[in-house]
């Protein structure tokens, strides 16, 4: 899936310039949890979140996992990533981190990045200003208490963003971070082979892949992951966490 950037908004906050990329893509439907509609992502992650320049061959890919932590699926994903010596970024819901704090801590201790996916997976564009602040800030507090750092990236549930979301993110010192490739592992009945095939067909260096470790039955994502890692390693790719600090 390729996304066209439509606008760049620069917000100055505490002497730091934060760039928020807003974009539009063809209309689509989907689901990041189970049955709620998913809008197509409205922009790719910011270039400064990636670290291609640190790799001699530039063949880096960024695996991201949304909607966790989950008692079974996140643990299995972590075991697979460890086996393949791959790092990833986990966009976690605050409510799930509160339920499974030890898993969030394990994600952090294994060297992965833990970032903000709001508290309860609500569409942030539909919330009042106070509700929006609560969704983001409560998650910051929870994740920060478990990892020792405050997330600097926000991935809005469903990829849904508007001016209010990007503005509030900037006020809290965050960048809005979406994705380049969506293999639709959130779809009911989507097979592991289809998930793998989609990733391997679409991936290019320095791209961000959307996957899920929570929000439903993610056993097919878990089943697809070893094949994705093996095939991409054979092509010379390395796997890094996004630079959200």
Structural class from helices and strands? alpha/beta
State the distance separating the first and last CA atoms.
27 Å
CATH class: Alpha Beta
Number of helices: 7
Question: How large a portion of the residues is in β-strands, by DSSP E?
Answer: 15-25%
Helix content: 25-40%
CATH homology-level superfamily: Glycoside hydrolase/deacetylase
Spans with pLDDT under 50 lasting ≥5 residues?
1-48, 50-56
> What order do the helices and strands follow?
EEEHEHHEHEHEHEHE
Count of domain modules? 1
In short:
The protein is of the alpha/beta class. It is 33% helix and 19% strand.
Architecture overview:
This protein has 245 residues and is α/β, with parallel strands linked by helices. It contains seven helices and nine strands, in the order βββαβααβαβαβαβαβ. Strands 3, 4, 5, 8 and 9 form a five-stranded parallel β-sheet that branches.
Write the layout of secondary structure elements.
Blueprint: E1 4-13, E2 16-24, E3 60-66, H1 73-83, E4 88-92, H2 94-99, H3 101-109, E5 113-116, H4 129-147, E6 153-154, H5 163-171, E7 175-176, H6 192-202, E8 207-212, H7 219-234, E9 238-239
Parallel strand pairs: 3-4, 3-8, 3-9, 4-5, 6-7
Antiparallel strand pairs: 1-2
Helix pairs in contact: 1-7, 4-5, 6-7
Salient structural properties:
245 residues, TIM Barrel, two-stranded antiparallel ribbon, 9 strands, globular
């Amino acid at each position: 899936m390729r996304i066209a950037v439509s606008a760049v908004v620069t917000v100055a906050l505490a002497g730091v310039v934060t760039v928020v990329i807003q974009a539009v893509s063809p209309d689509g439907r989907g689901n990041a949890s189970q049955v709620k509609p998913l809008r197509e992502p409205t922009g790719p992650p910011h270039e400064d979140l990636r670290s291609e320049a640190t790799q001699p061959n530039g063949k880096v890919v960024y695996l991201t996992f949304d909607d966790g932590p989950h008692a079974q699926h996140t643990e299995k994903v972590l075991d697979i990533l460890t086996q393949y010596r791959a790092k990833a970024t986990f966009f976690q819901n605050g409510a799930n981190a509160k339920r499974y704090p030890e898993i969030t801590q394990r994600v952090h201790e294994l060297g992965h990045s833990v970032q903000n996916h709001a508290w309860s997976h609500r569409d942030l564009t539909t919330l009042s200003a106070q509700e929006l602040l609560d969704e983001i800030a409560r998650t910051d507090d929870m994740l920060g208490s478990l990892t020792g750092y405050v997330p600097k990236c926000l991935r809005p549930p469903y990829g849904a963003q508007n001016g209010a979301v990007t503005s509030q993110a900037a006020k809290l010192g965050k960048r809005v971070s979406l994705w380049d490739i969506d293999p639709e592992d959130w779809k009911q009945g989507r097979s592991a082979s289809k998930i793998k095939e989609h990733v391997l067909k679409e991936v290019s260096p320095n791209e961000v892949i959307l996957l899920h470790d929570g929000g439903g039955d993610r056993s097919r994502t878990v089943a697809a992951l070893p094949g994705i890692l093996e095939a991409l390693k054979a092509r010379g790719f390395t796997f890094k966490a996004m630079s959200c600090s």
